[in-house]
Model the fold of this input.
Amino acid sequence: MQLDPSSTADLSAQIATAIRDAIISGQLIVDQRLPSEAELSDTFNVSRPTVREALKRLAAQSLIRTQRGATGGAFVNRISFEEAYSQQITTSTLLLSMNAVSFETALEARYALERACAPLAATRRTADHLAAMRAEIHRQGQPGLTDEAFCASDVAFHRALVDAAGNPVLSYQLAGAVEAMQPLMNMITFTARDRAQIVALHGAIADAVEQQDAPGTRKGLHALEEETRNLGRDVLAKRAARDKTN
Amino acid sequence: MQLDPSSTADLSAQIATAIRDAIISGQLIVDQRLPSEAELSDTFNVSRPTVREALKRLAAQSLIRTQRGATGGAFVNRISFEEAYSQQITTSTLLLSMNAVSFETALEARYALERACAPLAATRRTADHLAAMRAEIHRQGQPGLTDEAFCASDVAFHRALVDAAGNPVLSYQLAGAVEAMQPLMNMITFTARDRAQIVALHGAIADAVEQQDAPGTRKGLHALEEETRNLGRDVLAKRAARDKTN
DNA sequence: TGCGAAACTAATGTCAGACATTTAAGCTTC
DNA sequence: GAAGCTTAAATGTCTGACATTAGTTTCGCA
Done:
């Protein structure tokens, strides 16, 4: 591991890159201990604070973890799916909000991906997945639920559907698409009629999954996408009209 | 922004979380300047190195950028799709390699997602996308190409297909699934016959996309998935046999 | 001899203060 | 008015120290 002396970037960034490359290339393997901060500062000819900044960068990406104490140090971290999920959700959410991605674009992406899970979900769903979906449907039908709670339950329903596909890679990739929609969905005010319609569509999807009916699941998702798109369109139209009068 | 005194976590981690929350919640908006390091260390009652470690954590996630000089400082960064792509690819690649995800699982996820793009790609593809796909197909047919270069070109072909869907959110989500497969694909040795078959399938897919034939595109991807799965299975079987004799 | 407590040690976590470097803005001079 | 100089404010880096944590070893006592 060595640095490029011609680079103008921060030393801590260069060091972080060097170590990251070593991890990616397999020179450093999972659970292996990195040299101590003092040793690293010797190796790279920089001070300990600089090394520490580099290590914090890597820790922020869950590439390493640190332990204090006599046998402590920095260790290459095995990135778990759980950690990767939450990182992905944060990034996706910010990506959408900061780049003013339209409701339509996000919706299209989300349902395109979700329909990709449909055949697998219909084939592999277990009783647990079905129970989770039914539980969320039940919750969504309860009166007095806030719009935010309704959206959160909607997300939980869809996550259960995705997880039913039984492919952790798929679940990981979709976590971002599904969860990042939530802030956009939260802009919508759901009437009782809207909710009833969505609950009915969720029910139809759950039925199709239970019967291992892949085309039916796809159709249900299509219908739900249409319904949601119309809701979003209405909200945007009303907002535009209001902005015009003001 | 305040810290929880009861927390046992690193101060720099707590500070990073506090600032991150402020960004996510919208208290800090894009391009807004954070207080200087000296001011932050006053606010949080910590030293400047500790503040700096916190800022480096945020910088590692592209949440902030820093500028030196008189009007410099840390600014809330607008996460671009480009940055998010590369982060996602790194995370996905490590996730797969560190968790020993099987070739079959990754392959299934990748093609399920890619087929989700097929209808959109067939509808919206531009001349540029078609040209990119054709160029990669041509490259794949050239003799003397290393297996690695062949895989890289394969990835480029699939990225062009995904981008043809014209949905940046979709492209972002799929970047991980497509690129993370490359290390797994690199384990395969492609015979001339294998390559010819793959090139033919790529050609069929490009034709279907050109003719805006969505079902044809899906079928082509299905065939390609089958072909790739068989190749992977062969490699694994041979490897298992070899390991047995040794 | 066995075991518990105390001391030791090596590592990360935090702090204080200093200097180096960069960059923009203001000032000065021609 | 424009070019160059000066200044100021910020980040980048270094040195050295102390605090805290958690294994490890050692010592003393029953």
Observations:
- Strands of chain B lie at 64-67, 73-76.
- The two ends of chain B are 61 Å apart (CA to CA).
